[in-house]
From TrEMBL:
Lineage of source species: Eukaryota, Viridiplantae, Streptophyta, Embryophyta, Tracheophyta
Residue ranges of every copy of the NAD-dependent epimerase/dehydratase domain listed in the record: 5-146
The keyword NADP is assigned to this record: yes
Keyword set, alphabetical order: NADP, Oxidoreductase
Name the record gives this protein: NAD-dependent epimerase/dehydratase domain-containing protein
Annotated organism of origin: Populus trichocarpa (Western balsam poplar)
Keyword Heme annotated: no
GO molecular function: oxidoreductase activity, acting on the CH-OH group of donors, NAD or NADP as acceptor
Amino acid sequence: MEPAVNGTKNVIMAAAEAKVRRVVFTSSIGTVYMDPNRSPDVVVDESCWSDLEYCKNTKNWYCYGKTVAEQVAWDVAKKKGVDLVVVNPVVVLGPLLQPTVNASILHILKYLTGSAKTYANAVQAYVHVRDVAVAHILVFETPSASGRYICFEKMLHRGEVVEILAKFFPEYPIPTKCSDEKNPRKQNYKLTNQKIKDLGIEFVPVKQCLYETVKSLQEKGILPILKHAEDSVKIQ
């Protein structure tokens, strides 16, 4: 966590010294939604922050570190007079630039390789990598942009994710059973992306995100092509 916090502080201070016009900081949805005391009826928006004690108690060091780093960014920016705008993306999907698999992509890959025999009773929000890039440009170039911007297209239950994957890629051993069949199916929490949409972004549909993710995994040789896939799959 120390490198993330100190690195963030150093970047904001360097920006202040260089008198840059605006700093756009890439944070995470992990700084927003981790709060067990929030009512299910509350809409999770940019004013929400993750509970640091809860993150520590559940050993969610990713969300803890991201939250502390973003808070440091805001503190230093305020002290140094830096115009800071923050983008808070969710799970980012789409074509890979890197040759290795990151945590977001592994989240999808495990359902295709057979390593995951079941899917979790959980919900997750998704966004295309190109939309995250567009969001950064929009908040940088829009003079009125300020504060934080939650960046996502849609929230899905893991059961919906595997259904979409199975529709496009039925040749893979995609799980059909939930790991938790005793409890009710988890429902989406109320997360809003209205603030970033007001800047004019048009999100890539989540189905296309999933399709392009798998095609990229195939093209990079990370996921074996079990049979010739149709290039003209209609995404609806």
